[in-house]
Amino acid sequence: SRQWRGVIEEYRDRLPVAEGTPVVTLREGGTPLVPAQVVSERTGCEVYLKVEGANPTGSFKDRGMTMAITLAKQAGARAVICASTGNTSASAAAYAVRAGMVCAVLVPQGKVALGKMGQALVHGSRILQVDGNFDDCLTLARGLSEKYPVALVNSVNPMRIEGQKTAAFEIVDMLGDAPDIHVLPVGNAGNITAYWKGYREYAADGPATHTPRMWGYQASGAAPIVRGEPVKDPTTIATAIRIGNPASWEPAERARDESGGLIDAVTDRQILSAYRLLAASEGVFVEPASAASVAGLLKAAEQGLLDPGQRVVCTVTGNGLKDPEWAVAGAPRPITVPVDADAAAERLGLA
Ligand code: F0G
């Protein structure tokens, strides 16, 4: 048996990386495709979770970051910059360390989960908290990358999309064909764009016989694509997707329309309910934004949009450990016991 080599080496023939280019990798990708037993029962479909929290920095961003940083390094960049709601910055910070580069990150003040902030800090990135939201951070990062010698590694960098499309390849490679429907959370809309590119390439070249319908879900307080106009002050507990003016808006609409799919919104209440269901019934701990995919699928089931037996993949984009606040909030406090078996047994209801 051999170790998974990371998405560039595993899919080199499908990525724009020249032979001999030194690869910056943490062996990202190769993530589990887990059958979702309870969600399958509830929807009458064959549902799988693509567990992207199993990536090296705990989110799908690593797939795109290995590409963006590899090519930035090759082009001679000494520093990279990104705007982020937390996961992009965590990933950029780690890959910049591997590449021996400086990493600067711009984050919306007070709206980044603690675990993600800890990652950017411990990897030694230079963090600026911006008095604004993610959209403001991205405007600033773009401006800086145009005026100063620093490479932008947000998903407006096409190499990010190239790397992230490998998740679609992995799914087809594991299932033997594309699913009927692919569901994912939508924030800046790079990931839905990347999956659609991956599925289209695999359908054009043979590994898949068809492409799936792409179903994207935004948080209802941050749902510009659903509303058809930018949201000035986006709000949601799912801070990762708290975005009012997605950079990949048009490509996301193309993914929706060309695939016969949809982009809809789910409420914070629906997101948290799916978040708890995944943890308590499937054993999969994701961050709140990630649960938007499953929340969306459950909503679609209630709306009668699913046919029995359809094969569905939900991407769960980030690890629950990044943002444990919602796991702890409202949960019963652990009971303290003395070092005594009888007392412990009684408290556990065993006695
Ligand atoms: N889920 C998680 C956990 C995310 O971190 C993001 C985006 C998304 C979903 C949405 O993906 O932007 O490609 O539509 N996070 C970015 C960041 C914005 O800065 O980490 P998208």
TrEMBL record:
The modification N6-(pyridoxal phosphate)lysine is found at K61. Pyridoxal 5'-phosphate binds at N87, G187, N188, A189, G190, N191, T317. GO terms for biological process: isoleucine biosynthetic process; L-serine catabolic process; L-threonine catabolic process; threonine biosynthetic process. Gene3D superfamilies: 3.40.50.1100. It catalyses: O-phospho-L-homoserine + H2O = L-threonine + phosphate. Its EC number is 4.2.3.1. Pathway: Amino-acid biosynthesis; L-threonine biosynthesis; L-threonine from L-aspartate: step 5/5. Its cofactor is pyridoxal 5'-phosphate. It is an enzyme of class 4 (lyase). InterPro entries: Ser/Thr_Dehydratase, Ser/Thr_deHydtase_PyrdxlP-BS, Thr_synthase-like, Thr_Synthase_bac/arc, TrpB-like_PALP, TrpB-like_PALP_sf. Pfam families: PALP. Keywords: Amino-acid biosynthesis, Lyase, Pyridoxal phosphate, Threonine biosynthesis. The keyword Signal does not apply. Residues 24-318 form the Tryptophan synthase beta chain-like PALP domain. GO terms for molecular function: L-serine ammonia-lyase activity; pyridoxal phosphate binding; threonine deaminase activity; threonine synthase activity. Catalyzes the gamma-elimination of phosphate from L-phosphohomoserine and the beta-addition of water to produce L-threonine. Belongs to the threonine synthase family. This is Threonine synthase.
